[in-house]
Amino acid sequence: MKLRFPSIAVMIALALAFAAPAFAQQGSRIKDIASLQSGRDNQLIGYGLVVGLQGTGDSLRSSPFTEQSMRAMLQNLGISTQGGQSAAKNVAAVMVTANLPPFASPGSRIDASVSSLGDATSLRGGTLVMTSLSGADGQIYAVAQGSVVVSGFTAQGQASTVTEGVTTAGRVPNGAIIERELPSKFKDSANLVLQLRNPDFSTALGMARRINAYAQSTFGSRIAEARDSQEVVVQKPATADLTQLMAEIENLMVETDTPAKVVINERTGTIVIGADVRVSKVAVSYGTLTVQVNETPQVVQPNAFSNGRTAVQPQTDIVASKDGGKVATLDGPDLRTLVAGLNNIGVKPDGIIAILQGIKSAGALQAELVLQ
Fold first, then answer.
1. What are the tens digits of pLDDT across the range 166-178?
2. Could you tell me if 329 and 282 are in contact, meaning their C-beta atoms sit under 8 angstroms apart?
3. CA–CA separation, 21 vs 183, rounded Å?
4. 185 or 21, which is more confident?
């Protein structure tokens, strides 16, 4: 008896047929579509000085606050500043900003951004001296200090200057040390509030159902409720650890749903069409009329011994040409058909932008048109 094995093509087809439902059910993790309300960043700000610049700092006459800050810093260090004024341009006043990450603990480091306040031309090669960073409540949460990294550069000569990037702003990598932690604790919370990054009622309800299905099999009760299109509240079970609960919830898969949108940027000619955009059956004709006007004046010389004058005779050539003018039918039940129909017209992105705006005005574009 001779056994026959299926070919490789048949085996691949069968594998894909059985795997298709599994791939179709896959969605996005909750951690990728939502964020924890108590786990948001906090903004910090401070004022400081950058020293060690090679003549590219603030001119002390034009920026008096730089000189005042420098004198106050030297007095705090026990150095007398009474006397003449300094004309050195190796100091610049800067604003220092940073984001305090959630659940940050004292001693950890974060990046700090430095931006010039005065008339300094470059912060390259400078060092940020100790600067306290405060939050919105006025409390100091971090202290920044270190070398400033500037990505741009400036080359200047007697007759020309070449500049690339921004030289008056930079970063201090890992230059801020956290000195104070936030007053609230994660495990002190009685519930978890998940905020959708793209608010949508369908996605919020789907997330709540998925969390409740997990909680029903684990704790025997429902714990999630969708408040609106953005927030889903998860009540902490009495026997659950909040950290472990969040770790398990954020890895649950949820099917996301977004409204149909067409985003158009007329400055760059960028068109982004969502997967759910639909177009009712319409006929589109697109053509461009080009009018070219050429002025070629001619100089007319008088005849010999005629006592005439040289005159300029105007001559204008006008050429009108029309391109396109094709009539095409657009019927976009899905994204691929819509894009193929637009490409068949053979127009450039600016023409497609005009066509989409016309389809929207005709009421055939079943999506929101966003102009940037």
1. 889 999 999 999 9
2. yes
3. 47
4. 185
CB-CB neighbours of 27 under 10 Å: 18
pTM of the model: 0.65
Q: Could you tell me the residue range of the domain that residue 343 belongs to?
A: 261-371
| 230/319 same-domain check | no
180 contacts 133 by C-beta, under 8 angstroms: no
Q: What is the largest CA-CA distance in the chain?
A: 120
Do 57 and 152 lie in one domain? The reply is yes
Predicted confidence at residue 212, as pLDDT, reads 93
One domain for residues 219 and 297: no
User: Are 127 and 50 within 8 A, CB to CB?
Assistant: yes
Q: Name which of 178, 339, 360 is nearest 272 in CA terms.
A: 339
- Both tokens of 61, joined, read 């006459």
Distance between CA atoms of residues 362 and 262, nearest Å: 15
DSSP state of 49: E
Render pLDDT for 140-172 as a digit per residue (tens, 0 to 9): 999 999 999 998 766 666 666 776 778 899 999
In a domain, 349, yes or no: yes
Query: Do both 192 and 166 map to the same domain?
Result: no
Tell me the C-alpha distance between 134 and 199, whole Å. Answer: 31
